[in-house]
């Protein structure tokens, strides 16, 4: 059915519709010579289609009308009481090339941003309402309104107009992001900031920085400058990165992995290196039987907790070399002795490692942050229970004593998906890794596919908080930073789609690729 809209004049109507791009040609009616009151010209519009965005909007109520695009007098304005959206408003005005009037009444041609605490759907939800040659972006919190501005920006780029009607949108998962190894390969501040801008347009909200490993320690330290490698990020650069991330509603998560992956730190503290009964040093492993080891790592955790204001700190806990041998107690008698001293005659090296994880998580909690740790730092047969508040970041099922994801979920533990089958971009493709493709993520992966290719049961969906696509630089020179940026572009696009809405994507993979090119 076609709906005819009667308007008062042929051109320059008050709603600005005649100037809109893509508007149908008016169906003019010739005046009757015998009637002084001839019908006015009419326009007909088909029902609008949803805006073409990545990730796709989850709901669009279609309407008839020309949609909206910026015109000569357009401006971004803030609704009364929405002054907290000034940064979002100025950013959008700059991107669209419009004016910015702050808190002011919306006029025809304007985009209005509004905070509406009564609007349901959560802090990251939003609506975009387009009618009468105006757009209103509203949400209960700043993050949701910001995501609405991303939808408007992408709709204009992909279709030339913001379609008439109402978008109602919110993410399926609260954690959506990128995990970046800057320890093995240095990525400068400008490169990281460029990724933040790309992530923001994809409605991602986390960037984790793995900045300490065997190869290097990549952020300036005031408490222990002796451990810092060159090149590295200065604290001023990190603050600049964080400021940009905050403006884009992205949380930057620091990661200092321990008790393994500490080679760069241990080069300055060789007396804390873990050694076997034969005196052989274990790469990257700190001796957790020594109180000085805990003091050193806690000093670093506190220093960087003060630098990174977000609510998370990743404490690692994976691949501790003492637990990769057949008999840890015999190979590392000092660890076995410390375990018995702390946990009684039946205490094990595994118990000691689990206690280390709990202690580091407690240090992080004392700074008002929540701890994250890799899944292979949680042990099934340990007498020590990992603190229930630590989020398990599930990446592998290949470790010694590997447990399936359901073991963590059945304990009631929150889990984040970093499935190395789909989400690990490992430079040089060592150890049977292959570069992940956006197509495979888009067509096969969902947040419930935590290990391998098989999803866990739907009843666990609420415990899976989201996921991150991870870049690991095992063979650092295998790609340049520019090649990494290009290599992860489509996988990031696909990951963002599946974390925003894990259902069947609305576009085929070739259509999705084409849209991504349009939005670049």
UniProtKB/TrEMBL annotation:
Keywords, ordered alphabetically: Glycosidase, Hydrolase
Keyword presence, Hydrolase: yes
Domain Glycoside hydrolase family 20 catalytic: from-to ranges: 176-482
Domain of life: Bacteria
InterPro entries named in the record: Beta_hexosaminidase_sua/sub, GH, GH20_Enzymes, Glyco_hydro_20_cat, Hex-like_dom2, HEX_bac_N
A Pfam short name: Glyco_hydro_20
SUPFAM superfamilies: (Trans)glycosidases, beta-N-acetylhexosaminidase-like domain
Low complexity bias: start-end ranges: 20-32, 40-49
Residue ranges of domain Beta-hexosaminidase bacterial type N-terminal in the record: 51-170
Chain positions covered by the region annotation Disordered: 12-54
Similarity comment: family membership: Belongs to the glycosyl hydrolase 20 family.
Protein name: Family 20 glycosylhydrolase
Originating organism: Streptomyces lichenis
Organism lineage: Bacteria, Bacillati, Actinomycetota, Actinomycetes, Kitasatosporales
